[in-house]
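Backbone Fold Data
Goal — fold tokens
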Amino acid sequence: KMGNTCSAEKVMNTSKPLTAEADIATDQVTSLAWKPLCCNIKGTRCLRNADWLPGMGYSDLYCICQIPGKPFSRSVTEVVNNSLNPVWNQELQFRDYDAGDVLEFYVYDKDWIRPDDLLGYVALQSEQFHSGGFEGEVRLERAG
């Protein structure tokens, strides 16, 4: 699940597993005051267990959200340990967002000895959230 405070509501794939939920607020600029894009990463559900060895528990999950091509836009949630259904409920702000930018979300299992495991990703096109916002679930790709 990924999310934020927003006005419009749109729900996609709510009955399917391996989903992410997002809320994205885009305040229409009616004056010269600039406002950042706000995004509240809520969490995910029904992820596979990447820590499958006996005694390892479940995955230690975190999410990266970024705007492609803008290296300073990358934000990372806290790690939720030993879970397949993490809840982050973490608000992120993107100060370099421009209309037309894509938001990418990557969910990883944190590993301490080897590289982290990618458990799924999703890209939201600007048309899906700009100017009315977005609230709902989206299906993660490569979440097998």
